[in-house]
Write a structure and sequence with these properties.
single chain, mainly alpha, Clc chloride channel, two-stranded antiparallel sheet, 18 helices, 1% strand
Amino acid sequence: MPNFIKDNIQKTSNNSSRSIKKLLKQRSLVVAFSLLLTGLGASITSISFKTGIYFINNWRLALLDQFPSITVLPIFGALGGAIAGYLIKNIAPAAKGSGVSQIMGFLRHKKVPMNLKVGLVKLISGIIAIGSGFPLGPEGPSVQMGGSVAWQMAKWLKAPTAFRRVIVAAGGGAGIAAVFSAPLGGFVYAIEELLNSARPVILLLVVITTFIADSSADIIQALGLDPKAGGFDFNLGFLIQKEYDPSVFFLPIDFIYLVLLGIIIGIFAELYSRYVLLMQNLGKKWYKNKFVLKMSICGLILGSIYSCLPSTFHNLDELQKIIAEQNTSIGIALLAVLVLFITTGLAAASGAPGGLFYPMLTLGGSIGLIMGSWVEIATGHAPSTYIFAGMGAFVAGCSRTPITAMFLAFSLTKNLLIMKPVLISCIASFLIARAFNEESIYERQIQIELED
């Protein structure tokens, strides 16, 4: 990022801090309501998003039991892409893309529409696109939806402009917190990636918002709105929600292995970032303003590709699960790396409303599984944490946020012992990827996705 932009952001942060302190003294009730409504809004939209994807995806999988995949998947992809593209183009063009770059653009004083209409279109179109087979995740849209809700709440409550910027970033972090059940991950992401600020008053506002979002998301899930609930029980209260429960052993020799894994993944993450950006530029060049056609054709191509693959690849949640639990072969893991590398770039090129964190986690986990198996064959030993370290390292290499990446990988296991090995690989990956380019994939996407 150019120095004058960094200086401008720092000055804005200082001004925001002073304005917010003044606001806290004069209108503390407005601040409290803004934080509460932003956290609740982010959790409701994020859980609704995950639930909608779950049901459409299940419908698609049920049809695969009755009809051949070569018929179902391409048709689903083409129709889903066309419907989502039509909604975005005709109602809220700002709802296209990952969502993270839109929030980052807004925080860097670019003209980005921020309102409930954008959030609602992002919600519906994202559910349709991802549920129809676009290999993207819910976290990017959750960041944008959380930010849009936050902006609208602050506007309704007539909060000053400086406070709106902070609350938008807090809303984005709240979206991450709700969708990953990771309040610390959402908090650190808002500070590390979105705000680039560590002012105490700003830290306080962000951490309150992300914890409200995570807690309310757990309660909403317990009401039955998310079929994969587990973070709250009305008799027992809040519970530790683990997606995976791996055996974790961290030996001193593992440090070397984990650094090597981080170096390899850092190089691969930068290659992946450049590939995604290249595909996005080609998509804009080839289709220009034919957004609906572009999404429909991409959906058709994606469906056709996945119809030729084993059934494991028809449900990306299950693919990530068998990789994380090591219930698959090296051949499937290698195929997962190749397929997700190609198809997520194609999906991003279409402008589909979906995030990259989720496929990044699966890609990193697959590389960790492959490298772990090869290292064990070669040396007789491999760290037990290679898969989750790979997940965190890939996110860190692409997003340039090693602390956030560590907390996201930790959120999958809730095992404190895993944080050390994951952080080692995350830092190594971050440093290697940053040596090639200081900007994250999202910073480089800002110009591409906001050009229109």
